[in-house]
Amino acid sequence: MVTTADALWEAAFAGDEHLAADVVLDAAAELGHETVLLDVIGAVQHRVGREWAANRISVAQEHAITAINDRAVTALSITKPRRQPEHGRVTVACVDGEWHALPARLLAEVLSLRGFAVDYLGAQVPTPHLITYLHRTGPDVVALSSSIATRLPVAHSTMTACQATGVPVMVGGAAFGVDGAYARRFGANAWAADARSAADMLLSRTLTAPGTPHQPVDDLPHLADQEYTLVSRSARDLVRSVYRGLEDRVPAMRTYSDEQRQHTAEDLAHIVDYLATALYVDDDALFREFLSWTGAVLDARGVPSQVLEPALELLAAQLRDFPRAQRMLAQPARSLSA
User: Fold this and answer.
1) Which of 71, 56, 57, 55 lies closest to 16 in space, CA to CA?
2) DSSP for 49-84?
3) What is the pLDDT of residue 32?
4) pLDDT digits (tens, 9 = 90+) for 19-44
5) CA–CA gap between residue 260 and residue 46 (Å, rounded)
């Protein structure tokens, strides 16, 4: 049986934005706008991520499908029932560097349907500009979205800056962990697993105003050891050093094409970024899970995940004076060798 989500997938995969709009508008007439936003468009977007990881679609196809999904949201937005705001005002934004805007847009649309006044600021909003906007508009809540874990340090500093204005902050998105563990560690006023539960929460209770302004190091005292700061600041040098070492360890790399060299450097940069993020939150599991996911992606592309092992060894050699980094790098290396 072909579901509405299947029909939207087929339309988006084929690049047919008009058919995609017809699918969601017909479904909205039967199911309602919120259901289509979350259970149809949202489901298709989750599928996009799975298909890319399995190497069944390219990055370009991922972007094209997401763009059509975004236009499908627009079709629903301009046809939704008009409703005067009767609840509070919510500013919805992605943290700086976060390009995955669709989850935040879905939240903005759902909140609008539920009767909130919504200011949707879109992808990668620089923190100083966000703070200026809050001072000018005075919202009741800021909803911050982040999908990629490497944006956690920025998300944390953005959250504390927003709270310093006196506005409570709700956070959401895959970056904050399945159960919102990082949101709690950062001192967020609220965390929601998805747009529906976020809207339910904001309708059912008023978020407590932030307390005394604080800095990220107040929430994460381990940052005082400077491991995160030093690794993040030296990321480019680390990538270059590890790349040169890999050329010695894996002679075949010397004959790589420019494209292969670029992909290898990008993979190494991701490893360093995730290590830095794991150091920021002091969570070994975050780094292990990233490497496990990366190994599965490499396997799907026909690249043995064992190629990660020499990269981790070389990175550990560069960071021999960093005890937390050594601990994080040693555990995945052992599992890859098993």
Assistant:
1) 71
2) HHHHHTTSS-HHHHHHHHHHHHHHHHHHHHHSPP--
3) 96
4) 999 999 999 999 999 999 999 999 99
5) 28
- Residues 224-247 as b/e (b if ≥16 CB within 10 A, e otherwise) read eeebbeebbeeeeebbebbbebbe
Instruction: Please say whether the beta carbons of 253 and 329 come within 8 A.
Output: no
Torsion of CA 226, 290, 122, 83, to 10 degrees: -120
Could you tell me the pTM of the whole model? 0.91
DSSP H helices, the chain, are 4-13, 17-31, 33-36, 42-53, 59-79, 102-113, 127-137, 152-164, 181-186, 195-204, 216-219, 227-233, 235-249, 258-281, 284-300, 308-318, 323-337
> What backbone torsions phi and psi does residue 144 show, to the nearest 5 degrees?
-105, 135
Judge whether 163 and 189 are in contact, CB under 8 Å: yes
Nearest-angstrom CA–CA distance, 241 and 315: 8
Report whether 144 contacts 97 (CB < 8 A).
Answer: no
Q: What is the pLDDT of residue 289?
A: 93
- The Cα–Cα gap between 162 and 142 comes to 8
pLDDT at res. 260? 81
pLDDT at residue 256, as a whole number? 82
* Radius of gyration from C-alpha coordinates of the chain: 22
For 90, the enclosing helix (H) or strand (E) is strand 89-94
pLDDT for 332: 67
* Alpha carbons 319 and 315: distance in angstroms, whole number: 6
Torsion of CA 59, 257, 243, 304, to 10 degrees: 60
Q: pLDDT under 70 in the chain at which residues?
A: 1-2, 303-306, 332-338
Calculate ∠ Cα 176-215-189, nearest 5°: 45
Q: From its phi and psi, is residue 302 left (phi > 0), alpha (psi between -120 and 50) or beta?
A: left
Angle between helices 284-300 and 323-337 (to 10 degrees): 40
pLDDT of residue 23: 97
Q: Taking the CB of residue 296, how many other CB atoms lie within 10 A of it?
A: 13
